[in-house]
Amino acid sequence: MTSSSGPFSLDGRVALITGGAKGIGAGVVRMLAEAGARVAIADLDIAEAEALAGGLRAEGLEARAFAVNLADEAQIVALVEDVSEQLGAPWVLVNNAGIQDRELLLEGTAAEWDRMNAINARAPFLLTREVARRMIAAGQGGRIVNLASCSLAGQMIKGLAAYMGSKGALAALTQASALELVEHGITVNTILPGGVGTPGAMGAKGPPAEGPARRPPPLGRCEPIDIAGAVLYFASPVARYATNQVLCVDAGWSVS
Length: 256
Ligand SMILES: NC(=O)c1ccc[n+]([C@@H]2O[C@H](COP(=O)([O-])OP(=O)(O)OC[C@H]3O[C@@H](n4cnc5c(N)ncnc54)[C@H](O)[C@@H]3O)[C@@H](O)[C@H]2O)c1
Prior knowledge:
Layout: E1 14-18, H1 23-34, E2 38-43, H2 46-58, E3 62-67, H3 73-86, E4 92-95, H4 110-138, E5 142-147, H5 161-181, E6 186-193, H6 199-202, H7 224-235, E7 246-249
Parallel strand pairs: 1-2, 1-4, 2-3, 4-5, 5-6, 6-7
Helix pairs in contact: 1-7, 3-4, 4-5
The chain binds nicotinamide-adenine-dinucleotide (NAD).
């Protein structure tokens, strides 16, 4: 069932979600599809992306899977071209895909810094450029939502130098792009998710998780739907006057 009216309706608008096959991204895909969006699921894991898209279509929702490796600029350019040709110019871009492995600072490597930043920061920059060009050409404004991390608000564990470096860059990208895109009616906002038990978080490689974010969040553990709800707000027509904002959804860690 799609909701075709109301302030949170995305009826018929195209939404491109990176890393949408699993975890938080899959929750975002479902919520935006249920709000009526025509969803493009862009992921390295095309089998999972196809399975999710097929399941949503069986429910009467609109979703299509697109294979992409976000480490490759040419594939990002081709992705945005393919989505625009097959579904139309995106009105929503959710920069969700990210990798979360850890490496202690004193053992840190340039290779890991570069790998992390390529996916978590450089890819969102390239996607913002490519999608914003399409949004501007379409002349309808747009919404860009960047998923950073509540580690930027102090909810840290050890081993996050490269990860937090990349997420800090992403949060800064929000600010820079919000300024340059505001005249086109395109908003850009950041969400800082708290801990969510996703495949990426549970399977992250690295040293044992030690640090302030080991304590239990007072409201319980976030689920993908909790983060997806925040994405839907920033992605919706009603959020037209919210840009360059940061929303932390961390189940109360900040008051514990
Ligand atoms: N899970 C958490 O606790 C948590 C907390 C804070 C922030 N975040 C952020 O939220 C976002 C989603 O996290 P998640 O836990 O759902 O991750 P996840 O690893 O469970 O899912 C990420 C998705 O991105 C895809 N992906 C990874 N590399 C890719 C690439 N090179 N090209 C295309 N697709 C690629 C994966 O295939 C996967 O489907 C990430 O940016 C993460 O940093 C997560």
